[in-house]
Design brief:
The chain has 109 residues and is an all-alpha fold. It has one domain. The protein is built from three helices and no strands. Helix 1 packs antiparallel against helix 2. The model has no long low-confidence stretch (mean pLDDT 85).
Length: 109
């Protein structure tokens, strides 16, 4: 059924941690986007700090309380972490471009 049946838990947690952080981050980014660019920037900065604490605490809890193979977890976590942050960067870039074009139009008028 699965390609790596012996590492299902490790792969699941490696996917789950970045996915939860990504979903929560995007919720707050879209909420801040509807207000203004300064709120968006503040939200991004706070979100970055909170995510670093979240990742650190989550990984410490997992390694302290669960006995599993760390290498599959690290590979899964790294892949999803990078993938989701690239996706977030693309979305944030598009949001920034809409602010730039909106401000350019306001200046022209």
């Amino acid at each position: 059924m699965f390609l790596f049946q012996t590492y299902v838990i490790e792969l699941f947690f490696g996917w789950l941690l970045p996915a939860l952080a990504g979903i929560v981050t995007m919720y707050f980014i879209f909420s801040a986007y509807q207000k203004d660019s300064i709120t968006l920037t503040k939200t991004l900065a706070k979100g970055f700090a909170i995510k670093m604490i979240y990742y650190g605490v989550s990984i410490l809890i997992l390694f302290k309380h669960y006995s599993f193979q760390p290498i599959p977890f690290i590979c899964s976590f790294s892949g999803f972490f990078i993938g989701l942050h690239v996706f977030e960067a693309v979305i944030i870039k598009r949001i920034s471009e809409t602010y730039i074009t909106t401000q350019s139009k306001e200046i022209m008028e």
